[in-house]
Amino acid sequence: MNLLQLGVDGLATGSVYMMLALGISLVFSVMRLVNFAYGMIIVWFGFMLHVLWGTGLPYWLCVLGALAGTVLLSIVLARAIFMPFVGAPPATLLLASFGVAIVLQSVAVVLFGEPARPVQTPQILLTSIDTGWFRISVLQLLSLALGLTMLVGLEFLIGRTRIGMEIRATAESPEVARLMAVRSDRVLTFVFALSGLIAGLVALVWFAQSGSVTARGDLAPTLKAFVAVVIGGLGTIRGAVLGGLVLGFLETAMSGLLVGALSGFQQTFVFALVILILLLRPEGLLGKATGGMR
Amino acid sequence: MLELDRVSTGYGRVRALDTVSLTLGAGHTLAVLGPNGAGKSTLLKLVAGLQAPWSGTLKLDGSADLSPLDVTARVHRGIVLCPEGRRIFTTLSVEENLCIGGTALLARPGGAQRMREGLERAYSLFPILAERRHGPGSALSGGQQQMLAIARALMAEPRLLLLDEPSLGLSPVMADEVYATLAALKAEGMTLIVVEEAAGRPLGLADTAMILRNGRTVWRGAAAAARDPDLLQRAYLGDHAA
Amino acid sequence: MRRPLQLRSDAPLTPGGYMSLVASGMGIAALLALAILGLNLATGARFASLLTNLGLWLIIAVGFQVFVGSTGTISFGHPAFVALGAYTGGILTLPPAMQRIALPDLPGWLAGLDPGLWPATIAGGAVAALLALLIGPIVMRLTGIAAGIMTFGLLVIVNEMIRAATPLTRGNATFYGVPRLAGLTEVLVVVVLVVGIALAYKFSRWGLRARSVAQDPVAAEMSGISVVTSRLWAFVLSAFICGIGGALMGFFLTAFSAQSFYVGMVLPMMIMVLLGGMNSVAGALTGAVLLTFWEYVMRLIETGGMGISLPPGLSQLTLGAGLIAILFFRPSGLWGSREFFIAPVGQTRKGDNP
């Protein structure tokens, strides 16, 4: 296999996984919640885009609408369900988010049924460019650009702004932040909104790739995000970047290497590697977060 | 300024404070003393709003009932707690710690301006913090962290400052420095409640003192009168020990 | 006050107390089993399938509880053990003629064994326990979130392997032709036995160690208890019971696929254990009974059997919402960590009552 091609494909896939990991990690950093419902939020973006497209609006307006809907969904979930659980053990939070995922999924089943629904994508995204050394699709370019923008934007937001400072303070010690009149409910709402926005942006790329959405399609994105954060370490930007990229390259390499009978074992190999990493470094490659994605 | 009337509270079923009363006038300093587990920190948490009373009343400025106000609302009323063990944000820079401390200002008119003034004031009070302003909180020494904790609490422009063991774990020189700062704040007219296990320094600072043991007030009076070693020993160890 | 039947919480036990606790738990399970059998007779076996299903869930819930209750760790991976039990039992007991049709590529040494119901059931449990024993030393090092994610990984891996091991499992296709070796009676006998095993473990030295590790790993480690080892035995025993439940489920369903034992199975397991109280075997039994009937009623409604028709997906919705509600309003479940206990006359002590 062409190594350069592998590098490009791995980077593009890794960029998507990195974004998935960022959305999960961000919420974890402020409330120790590993959000099982994250994949379902992504799935709901797909359904919203599907419905909006049906109204005949221009594509970019549909995307904006679905993004707004995703952010709203994330905020509603946070305020109605997750925030009342603040202070509960992480395992309880994880289970509660599992319950939320089930609820979101069954509502999707009730409204849209089990069969896949098409998610429209402009043809331009699916064309690919052959540079002579490697091929890259417009969608891959978009993934890379989105990932890079998100990374720079988050670094700035977390590191340089007032709300970022409050996020870091809340992540390190919610109790002391409260003593300093930091409104933790506002910080958490903001973080969930941000995580929802990230979910929406990843979903855009995700469904452009597959072209359709099903109510039970949340497992794949949730799994990728979990594996990426476990590899890199939860609650840090660096961890999400590293975990996402490692997973992206690993999968790209696997799909090249595992042929024939072995091709069914891709997840097995990935998880075997994750187990190995956890065995050597139980907190992930980059260790535990000390505060606010830093 | 602050008035507690027969307040009791605790954790789960364990009573930590039993019918404690106190009055504190504006500009006065109260030292709360007593052995480990006497309920001193609980008393501060109660005033700050981290702990709800089981019974009894808390009043601010003679009339306002404190009970319905949460921590944030009490900070806005000028009650600020400087917690035990300093608890500065180690992942934030020194200046960011101060800015978080001034969160309450942002809700008021001219908040940004007052935040800048607050920072200047903090740096003139503690020049070492100005030197380290962009460094992480984790790089400070214990004494510097305590100064940052006090400076951070001051950012909220408190009228009543609650200090939980401000000299804990500090060298004698550092502890003296911290108390010199507190004396300066008192001279400016700030009302203080200082909780300590060791009686010496707080009694030098305070106007009045109270001694707690097992959640009850065992002695209350002028700070000068509490300097009697016999009294302290009886109060800390119980009457039968004297 | 002396009551013949009480809820009994964890307490240091005398040897006699230990035996009577296990025996009374089995007694309660036997009463439950008899009640189910009686109900089956009274209804002319019209609900035999529902009741057998209930019995199978009782076994699986108890198996899951053994791990969750004694380690305080949640697991998303236990459907994998149920799956291993079902496939192992199925492969071993498939009639030779059927084996040639359904599994033409089955390795020779596995073909035509036909050991019968009980050995095949035990084998199902053993294979599940073996997997737990192999991966346990790794997974049991982790706690909390990391453990949750890793057990989820375990589920994905096992599912993928089952789907890839076509010669043994028919891959993505339905595994069919398993003889119906188990019915209501066989399942209920196993329920009683499994309850006895779970209680015997819970109050044994090993069970107490595992629970002390769950409460305070550092203190337990300092008093010489190996964190990993004590949790490992809970994991292995739990896998064994779930494997047995899976084997019996295979013998009852006679046809199943890898998808039957995937993420969808986690939710009912989790609710059963949490609803009754994750530290209680009695809680697992209660949870399994309540949930099985709830799902039955919901399915009836969804298929229009109650005169009103609701869209499919609604029963799942109630389960998800129920899980959140339990976690929020009653995180310790109905019984907390208490067990049913029939107090022998004269042995009731002060403090036995919650």
Overview of this structure, please?
- The complex is a heterotrimer of chains A (294), B (242) and C (354).
- Chain A has helices spanning 3-31, 38-54, 59-82, 90-112, 123-126, 138-160, 162-172, 174-179, 184-210, 219-232, 237-257, 266-280, and strands at 117-118, 128-130, 135-137, 212-213.
- Chain A is mainly α.
- In chain A, a hairpin with a 4-residue loop joins strand 2 (128-130) and strand 3.
- In chain A, helix 1 (3-31) packs across helix 10.
- Chain B has 242 residues and is α/β, with parallel strands linked by helices.
- Chain B has a 6-stranded mixed sheet with strand order 6-7-8-3-9-10, with helices on both faces. In chain B, strands 2-1-4-5 form a 4-stranded antiparallel sheet, with helices on one face.
- In chain B, strand 9 and strand 10 (216-222) form a beta hairpin.
- The model of chain B has no long low-confidence stretch (mean pLDDT 91).
- Chain C has 354 residues and is mainly α.
- Chain C is 67% helix and 2% strand.
- In chain C, strands 1-2 form a two-stranded antiparallel sheet.
- In chain C, helix 2 runs antiparallel to helix 11 and helix 2 packs across helix 12 (263-276).
- Classes of the chains: A mainly alpha (294), B alpha/beta (242), C mainly alpha (354).
- The interface between A and C is large, with 45 and 43 residues.
Helix/strand-derived category of chain B reads alpha/beta
Low-confidence stretches of chain B: none
State the total count of DSSP E strands of chain A: 4
Distance between the termini of chain B: 35 Å
* Helicity level of chain A: over 70%
Mind summarizing the main beta sheet of chain B? 6 strands, mixed
Report the major sheet of chain A: 2 strands, antiparallel
Oligomer class: heterotrimer
In terms of DSSP E residues, the strand content of chain A is: under 5%
Number of helices in the DSSP assignment of chain B: 9
What is the rounded Rg of chain A?
19 Å
Please state the overall shape of chain A, judged from the principal axes of the Cα atoms.
Answer: globular
Class by helix and strand content of chain A? Answer: mainly alpha
Major beta sheet, strand line-up of chain A = 1-4
What best-fitting shape of chain B do the alpha-carbon axes yield? globular
N-to-C series of helices and strands of chain A: HHHHEHEEHHHHEHHH
Detail the poorly predicted runs of chain A: none
**What's the helical proportion of residues of chain B?**
25-40%
